[in-house]
Amino acid sequence: MYLVESKGGAIGCMFLALFFLGTWPALLTMLERRGRLPQHTYLDYSITNFFAALLIAFTFGEIGKGKPDEPNFLAQLAQDNWPSVLFAMGGGVVLSLGNLSSQYAFAFVGLSVTEVITASITVVIGTTVNYFLDDKINKAEILFPGVGCFLIAVFLGSAVHSSNASDNKAKLNNYSNDYKEAAISSKERDLVKSKDLERGSSSADNVEAGTAVFLIELEERRAIKVFGKSTLIGLSLTFSAGLCFSMFSPAFNLATNDQWHTLEKGIPHLTVYTAFFYFSISCFVIAIILNITFLYHPVLNLPKSSLKAYLADSDGRMWALLAGLLCGFGNGLQFMGGQAAGYAAADAVQALPLVSTFWGVVLFGEYRRSSRRTYALLGSMLFMFIVAVGVLMASSGHRSSSHTAKE
């Protein structure tokens, strides 16, 4: 079994996880904006997300010869470690619910702001819990100022959302002027849309990002309709996702380190790979059950679908499968780094809004043609996240190997 043992290796895992976990939401958002039903996308995503856990378990979890206190993955499956397994599976349940909620929140609140709020809630609650579960191996005088930076960032993120919403409202009020600048004849519009369908892109891509015409074209194309919906829907989904995310890392921490002494004497703690395997099983099962249910009983006035329609919907499937792989490997790397340097420090990957905001601006034209106030708030938010991730990584400790097994 391969274990990350150095602080440098742990930080390397965190950086890779940061990129992966910040990229997969952009892929799901892209597919929703192109009109693919979120139920179809999440089913594809769930398959490869679970596959990534299997691949990690059967490779890193089986490298070399196992030890009595650090058994390999397959050897540990037969051990009587169900209390820890239940903690791991509980973490998978809340992560699945959080990811599912955030998928719908992306449409209402936007990719950047959704990630800012959920990540900040995760850090403020989850990192604080992990600090005490990790027997305070992280430096409190560094860790908690980092948590404070995330808390400031959530307020800045809320201000960005409010300012950007006001900008969009002003654009729509001046719709007639914008439309004259980007006018397209009825015949030309039909031709553009037919070509968009062929290459799987939105007609909004052919209009300057940030204009009222762009916003209206996007609304016509996307799967989740947001115009006229209460802002409370998006905010409720976002905060629900954040609360779920704040619980999955502490649950995984308990699964691998048994701080509550639930295992029988002589039973080794779950390795990070075994815990991740059980974690991913419950995540997969919950996702499949809920999304098959949503096919026939959709939420938010989405159209009904079926398993047959899902299987036939191959448009964008490869992007959804890639998103699942990125999320699966991102979670695995986060847990590998957390086992070495402390899960509180590993929560630095919650600075993933830095990556998601980049994709949001580059791919989706978020904040294009916004006011100076919005740009100033956006820059302040990103700066605070840069400070926060640096501070959390600087708080990294090192877990003593003598505590990896129950005495």
From TrEMBL:
<feature type="transmembrane region" description="Helical">
    <location>
        <begin position="231"/>
        <end position="255"/>
    </location>
</feature>
<keyword id="KW-0067">ATP-binding</keyword>
<keyword id="KW-1133">Transmembrane helix</keyword>
<dbReference type="InterPro" id="IPR030189">
    <property type="entry name" value="UPS_plant"/>
</dbReference>
<dbReference type="GO" id="GO:0016020">
    <property type="term" value="C:membrane"/>
</dbReference>
<feature type="transmembrane region" description="Helical">
    <location>
        <begin position="105"/>
        <end position="130"/>
    </location>
</feature>
<keyword id="KW-0812">Transmembrane</keyword>
<dbReference type="GO" id="GO:0015505">
    <property type="term" value="F:uracil:monoatomic cation symporter activity"/>
</dbReference>
<dbReference type="InterPro" id="IPR009834">
    <property type="entry name" value="Ureide_permease"/>
</dbReference>
<dbReference type="Pfam" id="PF07168">
    <property type="entry name" value="Ureide_permease"/>
</dbReference>
<feature type="transmembrane region" description="Helical">
    <location>
        <begin position="142"/>
        <end position="161"/>
    </location>
</feature>
<feature type="transmembrane region" description="Helical">
    <location>
        <begin position="42"/>
        <end position="61"/>
    </location>
</feature>
<feature type="transmembrane region" description="Helical">
    <location>
        <begin position="375"/>
        <end position="394"/>
    </location>
</feature>
<keyword id="KW-0813">Transport</keyword>
<protein>
    <submittedName>
        <fullName>Allantoin permease</fullName>
    </submittedName>
</protein>
<keyword id="KW-0547">Nucleotide-binding</keyword>
<feature type="transmembrane region" description="Helical">
    <location>
        <begin position="343"/>
        <end position="363"/>
    </location>
</feature>
<feature type="transmembrane region" description="Helical">
    <location>
        <begin position="6"/>
        <end position="30"/>
    </location>
</feature>
<dbReference type="GO" id="GO:0005274">
    <property type="term" value="F:allantoin:proton symporter activity"/>
</dbReference>
<keyword id="KW-0472">Membrane</keyword>
<comment type="similarity">
    <text>Belongs to the plant ureide permease (TC 2.A.7.19) family.</text>
</comment>
<feature type="transmembrane region" description="Helical">
    <location>
        <begin position="318"/>
        <end position="337"/>
    </location>
</feature>
<feature type="transmembrane region" description="Helical">
    <location>
        <begin position="81"/>
        <end position="98"/>
    </location>
</feature>
<dbReference type="GO" id="GO:0005524">
    <property type="term" value="F:ATP binding"/>
</dbReference>
<feature type="transmembrane region" description="Helical">
    <location>
        <begin position="275"/>
        <end position="297"/>
    </location>
</feature>
